[in-house]
């Protein structure tokens, strides 16, 4: 389902949300689930931040998969939850986890910066509380990640309205993304004391850089586990997921990414699977990894484009006062998949 059209959202500054009124704005965003629309109407200031968070996730996804056949394309460039991947693959698992984490990250950041009306710094850690061990105390602005995570839960998870296995998969991966974010919160401290001595310290909790979350989720993607739905006896709806290869009812861990179906190979364009294919993609003639022309082009071969790079080199300073350079050039090639 199309949830939030980002290109559209970014054109809408917060000021116009205020000017036009939440009702009009929230009704215009295509594809919101009913509970998302209600949240949009009650918190119009947050909808912009949610859009930024989803974009954070998309950008990170494209960075992490820049050398892969699947390059995050089905997330789309102009829609936040754009064309979603219809196959319950490990790529879909990654996109859900990184989007949920991105929204939690952006909301938490906005809280710390005072940009959202109902949150701020983590109040539990404001002032000087219990933890006064080893000469440090809470101070500054601790990021209220609990609020960001809860907000992501309320908004991102609200799109799962169908009661099927895919819903369980999506919710699990959303939660895994947020959990990994929470686990990477950091303690940052500042020393106080004469001439830099650290007789007392003030410490606060900060968010990790989102790049770090990207790398962690990429590792989780590589280790993703296949699951299958289990229906509790009398109910028809699947009620939980269990590891497919395991004996008994072993469940995935909280931070596992889970998938239901094997991935397509993403070689050819296929709207049914959300594959854009690799025709026209750049590939690397010397790499032995997934960006090699062999792997990237799926054996179809590649086109070679020659060009010459020219630049100023061996520059020397002459007394006085000019610089003389040579012109250097280098022949280069780039390869694109047939
Ligand atoms: C918070 O608001 C300031 C000023 O309006 C803006 O520059 C900044 O990007 C906002 N931060 C977030 C996380 O939205
Ligand atoms: C991903 O691959 C598609 C298909 O080759 C291409 O059109 C698109 O520009 C790529 N996107 C990114 C972000 O590299
Ligand atoms: C191609 O791959 C090689 C080996 O992995 C790497 O050193 C080189 O920088 C890559 N070239 C490009 C254009 O990315």
* Strand/helix succession: HHHHHHEHHEEHEEEEEEHEE
The residue-averaged pLDDT reads 85
**Low-pLDDT regions:** 1-15, 76-82
How many helices does DSSP assign? 10
Number of strands: 11
Please state the overall shape, judged from the principal axes of the Cα atoms: globular
The structural class is: alpha+beta
Portion in beta strands = 15-25%
Seen as an oligomer or otherwise, the chain set is: single chain
Helical coverage, percent range: 25-40%
> What can be said about the biggest beta sheet?
3 strands, mixed
End-to-end Cα distance, whole Å, is: 32 Å
Main location: secreted
Family: Belongs to the Wnt family.
GO biological process, one term: tissue development
Pfam families: wnt (PF00110)
Describe the structure.
The chain is 36% helix and 21% strand. The protein has ten helices and eleven strands. The strands form four sheets. It has a three-stranded mixed sheet with strand order 1-3-2, with no helix packed on it. The chain has a three-stranded mixed sheet with strand order 5-4-6. The two termini are 32 Å apart. The structure holds 2-acetamido-2-deoxy-beta-D-glucopyranose (NAG) (3 copies). One 2-acetamido-2-deoxy-beta-D-glucopyranose binds next to loops.
